[in-house]
């Protein structure tokens, strides 16, 4: 039985935590907060910072984590830590503490911790790339498009700290698992990446038994030809292992609170700052071209498949048709064509956001009739209803907005929607809002 060679550096997470604790306790001395119980305050913020970090998995940053994931973790951490900080005043009855100075201290902490965290992560990646430290030696079992893409990442991203050693093509003549296992042991391989698509159940069982008995880390590359995602979550109920199919970040109350706060603030800004003066102007232009209501409402499905009325500026001539708008659709008015191209017709949906029926960002809601059709034709279509629908979404900024011309369009839209559902972060929402604004300014091909 071989030992794990260089799998983890056990000092990395404690080091990151220690640096942050030093920042927390040293930075306070630069502000005139009038804290009299200094030792108690130091103990209070240090202990609660550690507890909060464990709960939020603040230091559980993977070598392959994206910048947006790190920023999302920082935002989650400080949203709660800000409350903890000010709770000290009331809990320990310290009315003399300056709230303004505490705010300055808190703002400085956000900047310093963010700067230092990214600096340490950068140095760690350079340590892996330049000096070859904190390296994990890996092999890949399987030969297909996904394994080749993974191998390319290993080779192109040395800062991730993976040293690719060999690929075992299962379908090659002469392949056998015994020679593969011998190579792994002899070359002190740390991690084994195994393609589910290439191995039989018996072979997978052999690989699992081997890696467990030889203390090797086994990771699977899923076959997702028939399924859009396999983000499985492993938990224990007492001593019984239970596998959950997917984890939804917005099920977490903290994430839900952060997203709802973002929705309310942005919808108020748009409703007061833009729609208050834009609506009368749009109403005049709509009425000059065609008689009928200024607003258009349509029954759509939202979170948990609940029905709600979605609001828009009317961009088409009054009609009983429920068909999607197509290119050159005669029902679309001249004013409507401009509004649809710039997405101005969607702005009244901020009313839906304020009401709580929708979110600023999320899977776009479809008409009830279309939902019933797509649910029968597209696998995993209903997953997108685990969260509130949005005014814009990942699928929309990725080129899958507007008319569904082929089945491939809706399949790709659902793929992006499921990715968003499972990988939500506040930073991702902000990024998608910015991309939506830029796309609206440029104009989009399918905005008709």
From TrEMBL:
It is found in: Membrane. InterPro entries: Bact_transf, EPS_sugar_tfrase. Residues 259-441 form the Bacterial sugar transferase domain. Keywords: Membrane, Transferase, Transmembrane, Transmembrane helix. Its main location: membrane. The keyword Transferase applies. The keyword Nucleus does not apply. The chain crosses the membrane at residues 12-31, 37-55, 67-91, 103-124, 264-286. It is a multi-pass membrane protein. It comes from the Bacteria. Belongs to the bacterial sugar transferase family. NCBIfam families: EPS_sugtrans (TIGR03025). This is Exopolysaccharide biosynthesis polyprenyl glycosylphosphotransferase. It comes from Aquimarina celericrescens.
């Amino acid at each position: 039985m071989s030992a794990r060679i260089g799998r983890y550096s056990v000092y990395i997470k404690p080091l990151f935590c220690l640096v942050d604790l030093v920042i927390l306790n040293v930075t306070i001395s630069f502000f005139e907060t009038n804290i009299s119980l200094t030792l108690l305050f130091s103990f209070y913020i240090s202990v609660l910072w550690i507890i909060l970090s464990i709960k939020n998995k603040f230091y559980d940053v993977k070598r392959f984590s994206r910048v947006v994931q790190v920023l999302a973790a920082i935002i989650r951490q400080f949203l709660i830590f800000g409350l903890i900080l000010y709770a000290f005043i009331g809990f320990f009855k310290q009315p003399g503490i300056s709230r303004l100075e505490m705010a300055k201290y808190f703002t400085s902490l956000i900047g310093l911790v963010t700067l230092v965290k990214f600096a340490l992560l950068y140095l760690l990646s350079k340590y892996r790339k330049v000096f070859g430290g904190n390296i994990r030696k890996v092999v890949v079992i399987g030969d297909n498009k996904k394994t080749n893409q993974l191998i390319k990442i290993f080779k192109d991203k040395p800062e991730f700290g993976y040293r690719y050693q060999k690929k075992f093509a299962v379908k090659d003549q002469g392949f056998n698992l015994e020679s593969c296992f011998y190579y792994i042991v002899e070359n002190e391989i740390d991690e084994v990446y195994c393609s589910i698509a290439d191995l039989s159940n018996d072979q997978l069982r052999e690989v699992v038994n081997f890696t467990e008995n030889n203390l090797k880390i086994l990771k699977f590359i899923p076959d997702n030809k028939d399924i859009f995602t396999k983000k499985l979550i492993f938990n224990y109920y007492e001593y019984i292992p239970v596998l959950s199919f997917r984890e939804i970040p917005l099920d977490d109350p903290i994430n839900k609170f952060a997203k709802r706060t973002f929705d309310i603030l942005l919808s108020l800004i748009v409703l007061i700052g833009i729609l208050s003066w834009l609506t009368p102007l749009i109403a005049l232009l709509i009425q000059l071209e065609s008689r009928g209501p200024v607003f258009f409402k349509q029954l759509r499905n939202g979170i948990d498949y609940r029905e709600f009325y979605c609001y828009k500026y009317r961009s088409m001539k009054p009609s009983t048709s429920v068909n999607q708008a197509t290119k050159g659709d005669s029902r679309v008015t001249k004013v409507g064509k401009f509004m649809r191209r710039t997405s101005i017709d969607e702005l009244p949906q901020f009313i839906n956001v304020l009401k709580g029926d929708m979110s600023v960002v999320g899977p776009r809601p479809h008409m009830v009739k279309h939902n019933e059709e797509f649910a029968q034709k597209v696998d995993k279509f209903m997953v997108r209803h685990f969260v509130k629908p949005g005014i814009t979404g990942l699928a929309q900024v990725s080129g899958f907005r507007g008319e569904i011309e082929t089945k491939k369009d809706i399949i790709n839209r659902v793929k992006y929607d499921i990715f968003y559902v499972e990988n939500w972060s506040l930073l991702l929402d902000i990024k998608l809002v910015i991309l939506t604004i830029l796309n609206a300014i440029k104009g989009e091909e399918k905005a008709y």
